[in-house]
Design a protein that fits this description.
Distance between the termini: 41 Å
Organism: Croceibacterium selenioxidans
Largest sheet: 5 strands, mixed
Order of helices and strands: EHEEHHEEEE
Oligomer: single chain
Strand order of the largest sheet: 2-1-7-4-5
InterPro entries: Beta-grasp_dom_sf (IPR012675), Mopterin_synth/thiamin_S_b (IPR016155), ThiS/MoaD-like (IPR003749)
Helix content: 25-40%
Protein name: MoaD/ThiS family protein
Strand content: 25-35%
Number of helices: 3
Radius of gyration: 12 Å
Length: 80
């Protein structure tokens, strides 16, 4: 089984695809390992938020995703 990573906004551009599958279960360190280069660096930043199955995490380092879960990486939103 696997965990689906969903990239939104500029993170989708950095990843080259809007989503990808990684082996589960997945914790914070596993997520960082699964994200290459600038994508991993972006995820470490304070402005990127994580949601698991649609629920926003208050502390992304507490990430715990099981097989079949969806983890969304949410970049900062700018508006006009």
């Amino acid at each position: 089984m696997s965990v689906k990573l969903v990239f939104l906004g500029k993170l989708a551009d950095l990843s080259g695809a809007p989503e990808t599958l990684v082996p589960g279960p997945l914790d914070w360190e596993g997520l960082l390992t699964a994200l290459p280069g600038p994508l991993g660096e972006g995820a470490r930043g304070d402005k990127v938020k994580l949601a698991v199955n649609g629920k926003l995490l208050s502390d992304k380092t507490a990430l715990s995703a099981a097989d079949g879960d969806e983890v969304a990486l949410l970049p900062p939103v700018s508006g006009g």
